[in-house]
Specification:
The chain is an alpha/beta fold and 473 residues long. The chain has helices spanning 8-26, 37-42, 55-63, 87-99, 110-127, 141-159, 164-167, 185-193, 214-223, 246-255, 311-318, 348-383, 411-427, 454-472, and strands at residues 134-138, 176-179, 201-203, 229-234, 259-263, 288-292, 304-308, 387-389, 400-402, 434-437, 440-443. The protein has 14 helices and eleven strands. The chain binds pyridoxal-5'-phosphate.
């Protein structure tokens, strides 16, 4: 049987639900990476089949290959900043696929288009952002940065009397982009995609980990004499979870007439707990703010949010009508005119559902649980004679390295830590990445998963010590 057949649907749904239940039910107790992962991945390939094998057999083939996946949905994945999926988000995301709606135009899906509006409003409330900001769901933080910086580009050109979206970059003055050393590469990538230019970004750091040099920032802004500028603030940098000082950066942007953008891909969630809210003070003054859903909101990929103070900028950049499409200025939101994709997935469903299911209190609980895990791991690092913590733990990332007693700082120690990092990924019991922090190779486990238990977090220290003793001895 090689054609899709409605009679397959029942068996497909049944099989998928049973297999997913079994997979997720056992995920906490399996290693993050199975030793056969590469082999399983390599077993796929070959020519396009002439005759298909049917839906059920095909899905069985996939469910038989789960050892090839890295089990990042589970509680022991601390690499990058990757969250899991709450039960409510999982169910709603499946529903999004089941309904296969396109909220790009309100008329094609009033339910999911409305839920996107509600989701955006609830997120603003959750994060304490101004109610008047407009927003849109994106595929992640990179595209949220693209949306926000696209609005910044439009605004900068409008200051010079140019409609850059109509007339192109050649008609507009160049834009200077300023930030500290924490500016995330996705902001730089977005600026490249927008034609602003990756090399237009100047990072002004006062030390080797990237803390922003406010005096240099002010000097650069002053020297521009009012030429178009964007200031990027980082709320949550990836190596140690540190924050730029947002209030003085907002002051400088305001004083020198620059756009103020804040990348809070995961750090915006600091606003959810009274313990960390001070870290994002000043964010409400930004012209644009972004965050990720597939990080600390624990909704499935691909999910991010962009918030922009002036709603007219979003349609100015992304509005794009035609006779067969809705009017660009229709009062009901046509989400295809507020972000890059015209047709788009109903990614509002998992966002709405997880906020509906767990509320503000549930999210405070998830964030504070992850804050506690980071503190618990930091305490274990501090108590171990062969581990060295390299940064304060302000949020959810613990930055540390293996450093046996008597060892000296330098390339040999860096090399040992690099090898421990590679061996840890092979080991697979727990997953965390290595980085270079102020010239030192270090580990930077990041806690954002709602399922992580303290034994999972503490396993990081145990694995580093075991591998360190083995590789360094
Ligand atoms: C601060 C920051 N900005 C942007 C991104 C890019 O996010 P995404 O991978 O969702 O595009 C990340 C990802 O880790 C991040 O930490």
């Amino acid at each position: 049987m090689t054609n899709p057949d409605p009679n397959e649907l029942h068996d497909v749904v049944d099989l998928t639900a049973r297999e997913a239940d079994a997979y997720l039910g056992g995920i906490a107790d399996r290693p993050v990476r199975d030793p056969s992962a590469e082999e399983v991945a390599a077993s796929f390939g070959g020519d396009l089949p002439e005759h298909g094998s049917g839906a059920v057999a095909t899905l069985k083939e996939l469910f038989g290959a789960l050892d090839g996946a890295v089990h990042s949905a589970g509680p022991k994945f601390f690499h990058f900043v990757d969250g899991g999926t709450t039960p409510a988000a999982l169910g709603a995301d499946w529903l999004a696929t089941t309904l296969d709606q396109n909220p790009g135009a309100w008329v094609s899906s009033p339910l999911t288009a409305r839920l996107e509006q509600v989701a955006i409003d609830w997120l603003k409330e959750l994060f304490g952002l101004p109610a008047g900001m407009s927003g849109v769901l994106t595929t992640g933080a990179t595209m949220a940065n693209f949306v926000a910086l696209g609005c910044a580009r439009r605004w900068c050109a409008l200051q010079a009397g140019v409609d850059v979206d109509a007339d192109g970059l050649a008609a507009a003055p160049p834009i200077t982009v300023l930030g500290g050393g924490y500016v995330h590469p996705s902001d730089v990538k977005a600026l490249g995609m927008l034609g602003v230019g990756r090399d237009r970004v100047r990072t002004l750091a006062r030390d080797d980990v990237g803390r922003v040099d406010l005096e240099a920032l002010e000097a650069e802004l002053r020297a521009l004499h009012g030429a178009p500028a964007i200031v990027i603030g980082s709320a949550g940098e990836v190596n140690a979870g540190d924050f730029d000082p947002l209030p003085p950066m907002a002051d400088l942007a305001e004083r020198y007439g620059a756009w103020f953008h804040v990348d809070g891909a995961f750090g915006l969630f600091a606003s959810v707990s009274p313990r960390t809210r001070h870290l994002v003070e000043g964010i409400e003054r930004a012209d644009s703010v972004i965050a990720d859903g597939h990080k600390w909101l624990n909704v499935p990929y691909e999910n991010g949010f962009a918030f922009v103070r002036d709603p007219a900028l979003l349609t100015g950049v992304f509005g794009s009508g035609a006779a067969y499409l809705p009017d660009v200025d229709e009062p009901r939101p046509n989400w295809g005119y507020l972000g890059p994709e015209m047709s788009r997935r109903a990614r509002s469903l998992p966002v709405w559902a997880t906020l509906r299911a767990y509320g503000r209190e549930g999210y405070r609980g998830i964030v504070e649980h992850d804050l506690d895990l980071a503190q618990a791991l930091a305490a274990a690092v501090d108590a171990a004679p062969d581990l060295e913590r390299l940064a304060d733990v302000q949020l959810n990332i613990v930055n540390f390295r293996y450093r046996p007693e008597g060892s000296v700082d330098g390339e040999e120690l860096n090399d040992l830590n690099r090898r421990i990092g590679e061996a840890a990924l092979e080991d697979g019991r727990v997953f965390f990445g290595a980085t270079t922090y102020g010239g030192r190779v270090a580990f930077r486990p990041a806690f954002v998963n709602w399922r992580t238990r303290s034994e999972d977090a503490l396993l990081v220290a145990q694995v580093v010590r075991e591998l360190g003793a083995k590789l360094g001895g």
